[in-house]
Amino acid sequence: MTKLRTLALALLASAGFAGAASAADFSEPYTPYTPTYSAFNFEGFYIGVTGGGIWDGTSAYLVAPDTAAFSVGGVAGVNFFLTDTVLGGLEVQGSVDVGTSGTVFDGFLLGRLGFAPSDNVMVYAAGGPGIAGGTGVYGIGGGVEFAATDSMSVRGELLGIGTWGAAPDAAKATVGLLWHMQ
After folding, report:
1. CATH number at residue 90
2. Reduced to 3 states, what is the DSSP secondary structure of residue 177?
3. Triad 80, 143, 43: Cα angle to 5°
4. What is the pTM of this model?
5. pLDDT tens track for 39-56
6. Which of 2, 33, 95, 131 has the maximal Cβ count within 10 Å?
7. In the structure, how many helices (H) and strands (E) does the chain have?
8. 6: phi > 0 → left, psi -120 to 50 → alpha, else beta; which?
């Protein structure tokens, strides 16, 4: 009986020591999941579609007597950071301008200089040569671009259009959806 009592006491003591040993082990505290978001990157190649309108007070670039037309087109370009927040770039854009009297085409090769005040916004100026309705022109203006997803952005742009040596006498306003190949 004493052997049984000694064995029972030994088992009880070892169970007690084992419980105390596991109580000394600390578990890691619970840390809730916090998603991380990568900053949008305006740098690199992009392509996209645009839509909007062109207004020409003189019908110089549209089929007369049209002074306004719906515009739909595409863009392709590249941006590169000059500093942490300043971007440079080059863009080619072309569109079909559909008025009530006819359809014309326009295209521009634009240099871009932009400022990114935050990770998902870029404000830019643009300018360069082009052709509108068969006439050699220039476009000068700017826009703002907002990140929509990790690789998509939306933008609004306004260009003044004029013949070389004269002030702009037409305006083109577009919105666009761009895919950035990052």
Report:
1. 2.40.160.20
2. strand
3. 15
4. 0.77
5. 788 999 999 999 999 998
6. 95
7. 1, 8
8. alpha
